[in-house]
Amino acid sequence: MQNILIIEPDARYRSRARGALESLSCQVRESASMEEGLRAMLETPPSLVIAGSNEPEAADLKLLRVARQGTRPVPVLVLASSGTTEGAIGFMDGGAYDYIAKPVNPSELLAVVQDILRLAGDASRPLRIAPPADGMSSRSSIIGRSPEMIEIFKMVGRIAKSDAAVLVQGESGTGKELVARTIHENSRRAGKPFLAVNCAAIPETLLESELFGHEKGAFTGAAYSRKGKFELCHGGTILLDEVGDMSLATQSKILRVLQEHTFERVGGEQTLSSDTRIIAATNKSLVEAIERSEFRVDLFYRLKVVSVFLPPLHKRPGDLPLLIDHFVKKYSHQAKVEIRGISRRAQALLEAQTWTGNVRELENAIQTAVVLNRTGTLDLEDFPFLQSAGRTGADDVRRSVLVDLRGAAKRAARVLLAEDSPTSPAGIYYGCLSAVETAVVEAALESYGGNQVQAARALGISRNTLRSKMRISS
Ligand SMILES: Nc1ncnc2c1ncn2[C@@H]1O[C@H](COP(=O)(O)OP(=O)(O)OP(=O)(O)O)[C@@H](O)[C@H]1O
Ligand SMILES: [Mg+2]
Questions:
Q1: Per-residue pLDDT, 199
Q2: By the number of CB atoms within 10 A of the CB, which of 97, 109, 223, 460 ranks highest?
């Protein structure tokens, strides 16, 4: 009979996980700490370990290491509470079999466990070849907790240490370069250069010289010989950005570098070699380019040994609040201004946009808003460019916020009306109205740092009315 070991400090999570697995005819054991779990694992090796953790700390990495040793490696499924990039990459890089961010849906957990038991059987394959680096951390921050992004973090963790070529696809601004950089930073090449070459921005003749270098006199204007990116990047990673725009002649030279690691400088005789990992990125369909005979099929297959697809931002709306928060912090820190937060209506306005320029467009919008802001709270007037582009967007936001408010007030009134000893109905009526008035006045004062003139103007009431409402609420 297969047996599953659940290692989780929180008793509620342990019993929830046990409950999710009830329908399996497996023996389930529980441990409340990594140390205890490690002992239980060594005593009777389980078919699968489910480990709850926050971040990949020393104890977790030790568990992963021990699980991968021995003749029958034990697959470890990590249930992580923080859901950060570093966490997901660290666990996968440490050899975790799979990773799910909490809160975990019981049917999802059951499905993943069934998959692991079926695929791995008792002879699980270790995912990582190189030993894990204890306490590793990533310098680039890819933000996201949507299932799509979690899959990408897992993929980055799995492939970072190998030398395989990677093809990163996605619309403009989805984070292709960021992903390439993260792969580099998590690889054994981390201390070596990461160089990006934009194949679309450089004329064809210069692109070859940019990549492979040239000898003196190779072409008009080549007064000196010069090293190319492949020579400069030895030991590191090169990002061939917009690879779909590369000419067929250059493509065949890249193919040779991929196969033999060799090339010649433009106008040079000597064959040079370079140990460089190639990551290619494109926002165009390479399949269509192949159909138009503009891209080599063999290069396509060599590049897409590992393929990462970044979905457009509007397909992962759950990531928006995290990204907004991240960029507000990043740019207020950079501009040395204190931004306390973002108003609900501004947040709703941002969430209502389609962001055709993806994360880059969102990032630019927040950077501009932080510069425009005078109050310490980002609000609608800090995003005039978004409103003018879609006035109806702001109107929709206002409408939906008011509908929310009505719903909340209704729920509150129902609770009061259903109380055993009800306040007089008139008391409920005025009580609810004054609670809403107080909330509105407080929010306006908070948004304008206590400035009554500005708060009253924003609410569309006189300062005297505002003051009388403040007296009532105090
Ligand atoms: N998930 C993310 N978390 C944090 N920042 C992100 C994320 N995705 C993208 N960014 C930021 O958005 C900007 C654009 O990202 P990047 O340059 O990697 O996109 P790209 O896909 O290469 O775009 P293009 O196709 O236009 O070259 C960068 O400043 C990057 O740091
Ligand atoms: Mg790019």
A1: 92
A2: 97
